[in-house]
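Example (one chain per record):
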Amino acid sequence: MKTLLITGIGGLTPRSIATIIREKYPDYHLIGIDANKKSMGFFMKTKGRNLVDEYYVCPRCDAPDYFPFIEKLVAAKHVDYAFVQPEAEIVAWGDYYDKNGQFPVEVFMGCKRLSESLRDKSVMAQLLEGTHFIPKTIKVTQTEPKFEEVESQIGFPCWIRATEGTGGFGSLRLDNIDSYKSWLFINRKIQEFTVSEFLTGRHLANQMLYYNNEYVKGAALECAEYVMANTAPSHVTGNTHFARFLNEDRINKFCDDCVKYLCDKLKVPAHGILSFDLKEDKNGNLKVTEVNIRHMAYTGVMAHVGFDLISDTMTIMEDGNADRIERDRFHHYNKPYVFLRDVDVEPVILEDEDVFDNPTML
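Predicted structure:
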């Protein structure tokens, strides 16, 4: 019996990963860890089984006793592989590799330099500055708000969000300088933001797998509506309520071109799972708003409609290579699937959205 460690098990994405592994790898022994003793993943069940077989409260990944804890756990529980999901932990594990020449246990992730550069949105914006990949963007801080630059270089309306974190953290459309000043005051505990041109088109997402600089596979979707949107000033909560799976090759190509540009500039290989958030401008041109260095929250939903990067990750860790992974750079779903998500319920997948106009089809 193999043992798999899943970090950050309280988060939505690690819980989704654990659910798929329970379904497809029922003989695996799952261990979940989280720094929060009230982590939901510790206490959940799926298909009549506990989501994880064992769970432990761990130190924060920036604490000096974090990796001694990991090393002791891996040795004591004979851990074979690990899914490391929170971005702070991914960067920390990359740093561990740089210092030790190996990971604490077999994982599938990119290098520290790429992870650090993409985790901080202001660094990513600097790397992509002057290209067609991103909207006009500047970094601002509480001490250097750059009021004149925001007005002259970006203009209003514009979009503000925190440089770190996902889910539209600290996000809002700003319509004038007064709203900008108010937002800085309200969010004074957040030190850094990016301000960018306001994009009016669709919100798109793309999840991609790279292995040793080879683009192996990718698939796209549209995030059309958000869970509890009215609770956020921006109406973007980061949790998608309604989404459409898309067969649009241009999205995959655009994201792959962006990855190649970034990796060439950083002089590092593309490796691991990369997840894009994108918006279209008024002319339908794609613009990158975020690149996550991990599986995205709906990775489990994608697995149920034929694009399963969770099982692919397991295969790569088990084999030590990507030889058995299907090359599928422009994945096309076999039906026009859509999905619905909400709080405290499993996602619902529908074969198309005609059912909304024809209730009897349900």
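Caption: The chain has ten helices and 17 strands.
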